[in-house]
Amino acid sequence: MQAPVNVAICGLGTVGGGSLRLLRGNADEIARRAGCPIQVVRVATRRPRAIKIDSAISLGSDPFEAVQDDNVQVIVEAMGGFDPAFAVVSQALAGGKQVVTANKALIAERGNELFAIAEENGTTLAYESSVAGGIPIIKNLREGLAANRIEWLAGIINGTGNFILTEMAVGGRTFEDVLAEAQDLGYAEADPSFDVDGIDAAHKLTIMASIAFGIPLQFASTYTEGISTLAPEDLAYAEELGYRIKHLGIARRTDKGVEMRVHPTLISKRWLLSEVSGVDNAVVVKGHAAGSTMYQGPGAGADATASAVVADIIDIARQLRAGGRQPLVPSLHYHGAALDLPVVPIDSIASEYYLRIPVLDRMGVMARITRVLEQHAISIEAVIQKEVHGGSVPIVLLTHAVAESSMNAAIAELAKLADVVGPIGRVRVAPFPAGE
Fold it and tell me: For residue 80, what are the domain limits?
């Protein structure tokens, strides 16, 4: 067996600690698969004195010492955030080291710069663990589906949001109630906005869309909407209409360009994706040759994410063992320049819609609502009208497809009607037939 590949782990939290445990606990199997031993020789953590670790591993607080160590071949960036992560990764790549990261925000927002540095210096920036934890979606998009023209992908790619919506649907509980439980269980942070506002999912979708369509990473162009405005009755009405509501990331190539959007979405109960519950993640990819393929599993957690980190290290070890530094598979799947496809703004995207309109129980109210919708060329597919509660009644509609701009104008006009007595709930319907 060849000489070992030496690794430095920068950051010893959930991801870094899990990766260290996996590399040491499964060392023999990993060595057989890589063709050489993989050994951790340095760890950088903010609290080195609080960590008890094997004396063979150099322990310190400065990640740049690991970057400058000639004995280290692979840097695992597990610090998160942008500072000092960007500087650590860029210096490591420029200095001839291979880098593995789980930092989705770093890849989505600064990846174009980092991949350029890697290419210029003949080094590797691997990032399988940045999307969907233990699900190998990056590898499948870049390798398993390489022969396909990707038409669209859709994913439940944030476990916290999926847990909240699952519990709201099952128990009829409010968003605030389930969020508090998610925080108690450790699924949600004290400041949960990154998850419930869709930012985390948008980072992941940005990365997948770039690989799928060969476009630059464009996080700023990804439309992002959270789940905090959903009410328990929305999930109940969706169920009655044959749907479930999931916080979905959608990327789709159309004649207008590429759609990239994260928002609550009605998906048919006949679609397998609707069955994904709790903290699980799942991604469906539609290729022109392979058809629809679905990938499901734990989207976070120490062990699941470490599995993806170590898989990247194994790939790099194989690459080094074969005498190469730069990977055979391009970082974002395509050789050469990225495609200059426009990102379609949300106002121009046509969707079917679910609307929940709270109104006073008056004669002619449905006719007045219908008249407003007709003025904006919006036709109704289905209607649910419930019993009176305290003088008001929710009217629930499913519409046929209409541009977002038209729907926004219609909602603004509906809100001015004297019959409407509260905020109008609006959820987009998934643009894919259930059988795809």
Answer: 5-134+302-321
